[in-house]
User: What shape does this take?
Amino acid sequence: MNTKDLIDNIPILDSIIEYNKNNPVPFHMPGHKLGKGFEIDEFKAIGKFDVTEIPGTDNLHFPEEAILEAQNLAAKAFGAEKTFFLVNGSTCGIHAAIMSVCSEGDKLIISRDCHKAAIGGLMLAKAVPVYVRPKIDYEFKIPLGCDIDAMIAAMDNNLDAAGIFITRPTYYGICCDIRRLVSEAHKRGMAVIVDEAHGAHFRFYSGLPICAMDAGADLCIQSTHKTLPAFTQTALLHVKGDLIDRERLAFYLRLLQTSSPSYLFLCSIDYARYVMENSGKEKLMELKNKVRDFEEEFRDNEYYIIQKKPDNGYEKDFTRLVINTTGLGITGYQVEKILRQDFNIQVEMSDFYNIVCILTISDNDSDYKKLSGALKKIGEKYSKKESLSDIIIDEHYINQENVFISEYIKSETLPLKMAEGRICADIITPYPPGIPYICPGEIIMAETIELLYNIVNAGGRVNGLLPDGQIKVLRAAGE
Assistant: This one.
C-alpha cells in the first residue's frame, strides 16, 4: 500500500493534505496554527492534521465534500443506507438514536443489560423504559445479553411502544439471535436500535457474528475506537429502512455533537474504514488463528476460556477473550491487578470471576506470548488454592416498577449502608462495563448494597458512588 493509494481512498485525510501542501498562513482556529504553536516535535506533526471547517475540509454537520464522501464510503462498507460520523463517541449516537425514535412519554422496550448511555438517552428523550431482564450465564456469572423470548413478550404486552433497544455484543462478546428479534419487532411496526459499540469489526469477516445492519436493524451505533484502528471517542451511527426520520436524527446529532469536531478523529474514522475494507478479512482470519492457538494452550489448565454458546442460541465473538479465574481461588479483580503490577499487562476489565481482553488486528505475536506467559505463571502460583466460592449470584438485573426519573433532581447524600429503601438519584454502575445496577428513580435494595460493597472491597470501581462511600438519594418529603 503506497501513500498515493492511501490518500486517494481516505477523503478527509486527502483534503487536509491538500490544504497543507502549499504552506497556508492560517488566521483561523485552532490556536496552535497547524502545529507551529507546539514546542514538542510529536505535537507539531499531529498539529498539521488538526484543522477546522474551512473551504476544502468540509463541515461535519452539513457535509458536502470530503466528509460526505467519507460517510458514503463508510455506509457502503458497514452495510448501511446512511452513516454519520461521531466525534462524541457512541454515547452521543445512542442519545441521538433514542431521541429520534422516542418522543416524551413514549415507551422503549430495552434489555436491562444496557450501557448507562442508554439510560441517559431515555432521560434526554423523557421516554419510558420497559425493562426486560437479560439471560444470565450462572457458570460464569455474566449476562448473556438480550432474552429474545422475553423481548417478544414485552412487545406483545406493549404494542404502543415506539421501538426496542438491545446491546449486542455484550461486553463479554456474547451475541443474541438478532435476525429473529428484528423480524418480530418489524412485524409490530417497532424500530430496532442496536448498541453495537463493541462490534464494528463484525461485517469484515464471515467467521464473526452477523452485524446489526445486515440483520435488518434500523439504527446501529458502533465504536470505531473499541475494535478498529481509530482514536478514542470516535464512532459511527448507521441508518437503514423507512422507520427512522433521518432529518430528525441529523437534527439531534447537531444538538448533541460539538460544533468544532476534531479532524484528527474524523481522519481516524475514515482510516479505520479503509483498513478494514481493504485488509480486514485477511487480518481477522489471522487473528482467529492466533486466538485458536492461545485457547489451545489453556485447554487443560485452571483457567476456563468462554467460547461459543451454541446450546442456548447465543454466539461468541472470538476477538473478545474472556478468561474465568475461579479455578485459581482468586478473583478476576486480583488477576487484573497482578497482571498490571507484575507483568505490565493491562486487560480491558475484570469482575469477580473473569478477566476480559479485547483482541484486535493491531495486536502482535509478542503481545499474545507475554499474556500467555504471565497467565501461566499466575496459574502456577495459585493452582493449589481452593476454587473461588460464589460471592454473589448475578441477579441485579431486576425489573423494578418504580418511577423512572428523566431529569436532574435535588438530592441528599447518605452512607451506602444506610440507603436501603431510599430512591436513587443517580446512575450507579460498575465501570467497566457500565451496566447500571441502579437507575434514577429506582429503590435501593439490600442485596444491591451488598453487591456494591463486594465490588468495591474486591478492587472494582463503581461510578456514581462518592469517594467517601456515600450515595445520592431523593430528598425526603418536606426537605
Summary: DSSP finds 14 helices and 19 strands in the chain. The radius of gyration is 23 Å. The chain has a mean pLDDT of 92. Residues 263-297 form the longest helix (35 residues).
